[in-house]
Amino acid sequence: MKTAEIEEIRVPRGALIGAGLLILATFALAITARVTGADRAAPRLPAVTEAIATRDLVFVAGEAGALTVRDGQTGAVLAEYTSTEGGFVHGALRGLTRLRERRDIPADAPYRLAEWPGGRLTLQDRRTGMIVEVNAFGASSVTGYRTLLPSPSPAEVATP
Predict the structure, then answer these.
(1) 78: Cβ–Cβ under 8 A, 6 or more apart, which residues?
(2) Backbone dihedral region of 28: left (phi > 0), alpha (psi from -120 to 50 degrees) or beta?
(3) 133 lies in some domain
(4) Helix axes of 139-146 and 87-102: crossing angle, nearest 10 degrees
């Protein structure tokens, strides 16, 4: 029976020393930043706690892939899409609806559409905790959802 030959792996000594120095430098910089307070010197963005506009939406699936969007509080129809319209609205709901079905959550439970400072839009399923960042899917997606938000009242619109 032959014994297996074991190959010896050699790492250049300079590479090991370089890696060790890099690790030490990283720790030294982190400790220095913490001790001197340099990690707190950078300007911080204010915490965003309040949405600019919100609306609860109920999505009602119809025949042949049609979709009706209703106001979650008043029941008013906000939009109606055929199977070939509102592609992103349909697409974003597919994943959220599937999750609701798995958890036995009623389809008519409202979702929360919110616009945040800076123009960011989110669609949140408050029953499952899932949030869809609408902006991540492009300008046409944002436009499609922004039309579902309440229009500002004349008093809210700034006049020049």
Answers:
(1) 57, 69, 70, 71, 148
(2) alpha
(3) yes
(4) 80
Residue 141 lies in a domain: yes
pLDDT tens column, 54-84: 999 998 887 877 888 899 889 899 988 887 7
Residue 55, Cβ density class (10 Å: 0-12 exposed, 13-18 middle, ≥19 buried): buried
Residue with token string 């890099």? 22
Q: Does residue 154 form part of some domain?
A: no
Report the number of distinct structural domains present in the chain: 1
| 83 inside domain | yes
* Cα radius of gyration (the chain): 27
Rounded to 5 degrees, what are φ and ψ at 79? -160, 155
